[in-house]
Structure formats: structure tokens, C-alpha cells
Amino acid sequence: MSEPRSRWSMIAVFALLGAVTQTLWVTYAPVTDAAGRYYDVGDGAIGWLANVFPLLYVVLAIPAGIVLDRWFRGGLAAGALLTATGAVVRILGDTYVFALAGQLVVAVAQPLVLNAITGVAGRYLAERHRPTGIAVGSASTFAGLIVGFGLGAVFTEDVRTLLVVQAGLAAVAAVALVSVLRTPAEHRAEVAPAGFGALRIAWGDPFIRRLCALVFVPFGVFVALSTFAQPLLEPAGVAEETAGLILIANVVAGVAGCAVVPVWASRRGRELAVLTTSLLVTVVACVVLALVPGVVTGFVALALIGFGLLPALPIVLELTERRAGRSEGTAAGLMWLAGNLGGLVVAAVVGVLVGEPLLAFLLLAVLSLLTLPLLRSFSRVSTSEPARPPTA
Description:
Shape: globular
Number of strands: 0
Radius of gyration: 20 Å
Oligomer: single chain
Structural class: mainly alpha
């Protein structure tokens, strides 16, 4: 019998939903001052409207993965509906309480959506198309950041309209995804063990554990640079507006990288070589930023980091999908958990060093360099053998 066809319509609507979740995450980042005036709160309170996302992801990554492994369509539909609900809650009242409540709802939905990147590819695409599907799903999350910053630039002083537009996008994405989900998947649909069985299978695989350790630093470096690039480059004469453009260039380069690099690496079996190159480029770029910071070096270095580091996500997720089998949702949750923990820890350390840009950039370079030995250990473990439950 021939292999079932690939359903690219599912990939398209899932990519839209993934982009929307990230757009909602960074809603208030480009309009911090205006949002503070709108809600009559300080910058710290506005910051928490974004900070709740990585904090809740750390808590919910594994439970969301278990839900997706057992009830994939129901779990993903719940994620879509919660995303739209949270976006709508934010426009029900013009107070900080409604804003925070809405963000919390979306933050709960986010793991159900992002953990499903590998599951969507595995269930709705032929095997040869899955690397491309994972790359598209991953790239859409970064594209959502660009949309979020772009909408913030358009509605800089009109927070209410900004929230209404985003609620409309979330509603469209949710309705589209739920509609497509009505048709069952035609590809692999293995059911994971009940309870924590899927977690035992995923975590019992040494390959999955190594991947978790690997993603900690790259995620952390990207989050730290996204959070503190402006104050770190400011002593070198980089204006706030210019730093914003540098960060946009960083994400745009990352989206371009996600569209090309993971598919190329998968077709040629060069995933580990690409990850090694990405880390080496990050090391060199961070050293350049430490020694000769400025506008030109900022644009070039951060664009190279984006092009190298962001494709690491779809590469890692594709390796996870190939390896994890029926526990793929939980395994993907472990990847996102490790990445978000890396973001919290590395960003916190860099935040302490924000007044010492030289030390901060060198620290990021050293952390990236110390991650390279981890890649050697992968050569001793098959990337394609499905994970098995650990023996007693």
C-alpha cells in the first residue's frame, strides 16, 4: 500500500496558530511605556505580562506533552481555543487584571501548541516531508515575534486597538485549526502509555537526555541576547532604536535559517555538523561583540547568531520526532522545558552582568564553547532507533 498523502493545509493553519502564540507573548514588549500608562502600572508589572510565559512553560511542559501523547487532537484543539480565549479576555476590560489574566490563559495554552510541532509533522506528513514540516512550524514561532514587534510599532500609542487586532488573529487561527482537526490524521497514531509512562520512556532514552542538555545553552544565549542586547550595546554608542532593528534582523535571519538549514541538514544527515557549526559561529560572534561592539558588528554578529542558533530548534525537534516514537509529545516537552530553563538561567546571569558588556558577551561565548563536547557523545547513540522503556 502506498503511504498516505501529506496534508499541508494542517501545517499551514498550525503555523498560523504557532505564530499567534508568540505574537501574544511579546504583545507588550514594544509598547511598554504606552501599556504602563494604559493600565497605570510600572514597567516591572508590564514585564511580568511576558515573563509568565517561560515560567509557566517550565511547569506545564511535561504535563502538556503527556496530554498530547494520549489525546493529540483534543490537546491541540484545547491549546488553540485557550489561545483565542486568552486574547479575548485581554479586551474585556481596560485594567491590568484583565491583561494579566489573558496572558496567563495564553501561557497555559502555549505548551499545548508548541509541544505539538513534532506531532503535527508526524501525523499529517509523509516521512520524507517531516523535516520540512517541523522547520515550518518552528520558523512560524519566530515569525510570530516579528509580527508582534511589527504590530507594536504600528499601534505604539493605541494599546486597545493593538489588543483587538491580536484577538481577531487568535480567533481566526483557532477556528481554522479546529476545523482542520475535524479530519483525522492519516499517518502514525500510536497511543502513549497512560500516566507518566510516556515520560519514563522519553527520559529513559540517553539520546533524549543528551538533547535536553544540548538545547539548554543555545536557547539561553538567544533569550539573553534578545533580552539584554540593547543595554549591552548601549555603552558602545548603539541607540535604543538601532538596537531594536538589530534584534529584528536577528530574528529575520533566524527565520531564513529555519527555512533552509534544517531541511538541508536532514537530507544529508549533517544535523550534528550543523549544530557544531552554529555553536562555533556563536562563540566567534560573541567574542567579536565583546571586543569590538558597535552598530556594524552588532548587526552582523546578531544576524549570524540568529541564522545559526534558531535553526537548531527544528533540527533538535526533528531528531526528537525521529527518535521518540509514541512519546514524541513528552519528548518535545522535555526539549522546550530545557530550553526555557536555559533562557531563565542564562538571562538571569547576564542580567547581573548587564553593566559589564565585555564580561557578559565573553560568558556567552564560553558557555557556547563548553557545549561543544556534548555533541561528540551523540556519535555513540543512534539518532533513529525509537526510545524504549527503561528496564527495572
